[in-house]
């Protein structure tokens, strides 16, 4: 995908009506600080269009970035804030569930996992939840530049085992620093959205 145009087109709060965009959408989920904003900015070739590291307590929104007037990258609110209250967690869950249930144009869900860390219980829950809603998540192992090349396979194996990925599930390592993995992610998005 050659990025000619990228704009934050729609922001949905907890009670907003979800849009019927009529264009293919791919969504990104992951715990806060995993590198989701950095990935989305990297995919769009923008430095700071997607907000980075939203603070706990800040409004949680689903952000729709329109690319070339032909598709959307959808930034789902991050999870795993230590300070989140059960009520906030419930709101967050309902919002994501509503999106996964109602979007007519959602073609794929990417789940981001920090390549250095064993997936958390929340990550496993998110993976299960995406599956449950009828999508086969594609895993992006973020912050690739933070580990030695010799460690990559071992770290990917830990992720694969902890999430109990099926054999065919893709894991793509990505670095926001070097942009390694970017082309592969776009190729996949292009093929999933029929571009
Ligand atoms: P978000 O909360 O998931 O949106 O995470 P951010 O994109 O804001 O990233 C959290 C922190 O990790 C920031 O300080 C980023 O600069 C850093 N970060 C994100 N991706 C990478 C990466 O691929 N490599 C390195 N070295 N740092 C990264």
From TrEMBL:
Domain EngB-type G residue range list: 22-195
Sorted UniProt keywords: Cell cycle, Cell division, GTP-binding, Magnesium, Metal-binding, Nucleotide-binding, Septation
Cofactor annotation: Mg(2+)
Gene3D superfamilies, A to Z: P-loop containing nucleotide triphosphate hydrolases (3.40.50.300)
Role summary: Necessary for normal cell division and for the maintenance of normal septation.
Matches recorded under NCBIfam families: GTPase_YsxC
Protein family (similarity comment): Belongs to the TRAFAC class TrmE-Era-EngA-EngB-Septin-like GTPase superfamily. EngB GTPase family.
Record's protein name: Probable GTP-binding protein EngB
Organism: Blautia intestinihominis
